[in-house]
Amino acid sequence: MDIIISIILGIIQGITEWLPISSTGHLLLAEEFLHMSVSNEFVNMFKVVIQLASVIAVIVLYFHKLNPFSSRKTPKQRWNTIELWMKVAVACIPSAVGLFIDDIVDEKLSNYVVISLMLIIYGVLFIVIEKWNKHRKPGVTKLKELTYWTAFGIGCFQVLAMVPGTSRSGATIVGALLIGVARPVAAEFTFFLAIPTMVAASGLKLIKFGFNYTGHEIAVLLTGCVVSFLVSVFAIKFLMGYIKKHDFTVFGYYRIILGVVVLGYFLIFT
User: Fold this and answer.
1) Which residue ranges run through the membrane (predicted)?
2) CB burial class (10 A; 0-12, 13-18, 19+) of residue 230?
């Protein structure tokens, strides 16, 4: 049964990590109906580590674009790739500060009220920002046009995602759109920014939990990671194809509906 649950959670993680709809909100709702026979500490670690599998999907899909040592790139293209990584590093600076208060935030804010409110608030923001964007042209339409200050600004918005229910991709995309970044660039930079951010977060969780697993726990963890990776590949491809023709408004409405559902469920049944 734990393996089946890990498959379901891997699917939820793979879809919701990259779409700006909050993996936390979906996993919270799923956990109300799905209960593993392992410890709560393992479940908390499991949810973070399967995010790492989602990041590997980004590395696989964008390996050429992210590889500064590719022999198929010209010297200028290699430098552009190195500069992209430097901008990612700059954008990670605010998140590095956030790592020190991660446990406090989890303890104080990981509840259905906060998660529901963040789902609704950011849903409204998506709708409002997209309506506002209809009357202006983005100032940044290519990754190489991102300045270091713009990257840092997007990184500051990523810190907001520490509040459960916000959505890491949702916070960074909202921030990027506000700054004047085009949707495809905002989405791609969000993907790349996730690599160091989530690797660091997953590494800390693994260290805190330790590396003493039973065979059953290893099977559960590996299953969740594999499923999360495979589903993430399709989710990323879907999002990049979708935003070429559509805006993020539909995700805003979805977040509002989900927030109301989560809040209503816990108020009525708990």
Assistant:
1) 42-63, 84-101, 113-133, 145-165, 185-207, 219-240, 252-269
2) middle
| Tens-digit pLDDT profile for residues 188-237 | 999 999 999 888 877 777 787 777 788 888 999 999 999 999 999 999 99
**pLDDT tens digits for 50-105?**
988 999 999 999 999 999 999 899 999 999 999 999 999 999 998 877 666 766 77
Cα–Cα distance for residue pair 256/4, rounded to 1 Å:
29
Domain ranges, residue 251: 2-269
Dig out the tokens for 50 from the structure.
């399967």
Please tell me the distance from the alpha carbon of residue 227 to that of residue 221, in angstroms, as a whole number: 10
Does the pTM surpass 0.70? The reply is yes
Cβ contact 189:176 at 8 Å? yes
CA distance 23 to 260: 16
Please give the single-letter amino acid code of residue 221.
L
Whole-number Å distance between alpha carbons of 123 and 249:
8
Domains of the chain: total: 1
